[in-house]
Design a protein that fits this description.
Largest sheet: 6 strands, mixed
Distance between the termini: 60 Å
Shape: globular
Helix content: 25-40%
Number of helices: 18
Oligomer: single chain
Length: 508
Amino acid sequence: MTTLAHRNDTLTRDALAVLQPGFVGTTAPEWLLRRIGEGLSSVGLFGRNIASPEQLAALTAQLRAERDDVLVAIDEEGGDVTRLEVRTGSSFPGNYALGSVDDVALTRAVAAELGRRLAACGVDLNWAPSADVNSNPKNPVIGVRSFGADPQLVARHTAAYVEGLQSAGVAACAKHFPGHGDTAVDSHHSLPRIDVDLATLHARELVPFRAAVAAGSKSVMSAHILLPALDPDRPATLSPQILTGLLRRELGFDGLVVTDGMEMQAISATYGIERGSVLAIAAGADAICVGGGLADEDTVLRLRDALVTAVREGELPEERLADAAARVRALADWTRGARGAASEPGAASQEGTAPGTGTGSDIGLTAARRAVRVTPGERDFGPLTSAPYVAAFTAVANIAVGDETPWGVAAELARLLPGTQTGSYADAAVDDVLLAAGDRRIVAVVRDVHRHTWMAQSLDALIAARPDTIVVEMGIDQAPPRGALHVATFGAARVCGQAAAEAVCARS
């Protein structure tokens, strides 16, 4: 690797300042600390970096011992997408559950408590909330990460989430601008395209982002999606028309613009991460998120040198890079001030609460319980009273959710009904389910059954054979209710599983 500039050179420091890289391990590697000393201003955390709240607090203290104003970011949406609780499932329901309740005070309280926990661990930038309007129910990557399909509902809950999170001193990041909800393709794998007119975009996709800006969101994350009505040539992350023209000038956003992960195939397979990063900064982005898949020093140096070279060769204006770096440092200053305010006497008592919603650490379970919807079947078989067999019909999780985080109701049912047994099925193996269940009552757990034909067929065959089967839908509740009892949780967080288990046992 050729070093293109001295470590103290302003240009090099600015190039490092706009990067938000990841790393491997639960302690900071030496190379990362060295680059922070040279100007790297942000670090992104993922599930692989977190073992416990105490370990995370020690890690962030280690980073800040190198420089106190480093931004520590995380992708902690709650619900299905959790990094804090990647191995156990989240203590907070996700956006879809909160949107289904439609109590903005509850959403604000949940976000405030999540922010309090992040701040206690030293995290000060959360790449959340999703402000996407999930207008396409078959969307493979947004789904329950969205508050819903109604733009106005999504807008009011996006604003409440931003306010709650930032009340705890953690910067919010509304994503994925200008809206990833009407896609049938996951941008982790290829470039999605949304073919709607400008009027639709303004009436639907942009409504929650206007609300986020009005609520004072400190950052916005761009989407790797093509919207020909706005820019026929480049995805939003690389589009001056979208990031500078629309977001900055028309919507009046003056905070930090962060890209979605640059190693995602929508960018890396078409432009490469180096050229993609240069084009993103030139288009109006201020921070380059990378590290979900590429988490090493070489990636940081490649991107740093690509930005420096682009400035020196006249492809990227030096003023644009300097402005981006200044925005990163400005947000770091805000978070440092917020940390100081949080440590003042009496500040710790200001938890996110709302009348009738529960307080403090139980707010997530309270919200999950309120979200559960129970539909009785045509015949009343009654609640569960003995240990059942739980059949989890499992499709491949998208990359944002990942496959590390457990989901379902088996563990929670086992606590209520010891002796509960379970099995996981990835195809229409109904005979196997019946054989494994024996004479136990069956609880069939699904996620987004409307998107998976094999799953719907499996449910129908199972219910035909065992009419007393209980169905728990933990994804988008789009398909008609099935089973003797149909429970919709609007998300697969651990607390959603607990609330569902209580519902099928008629306990609370």
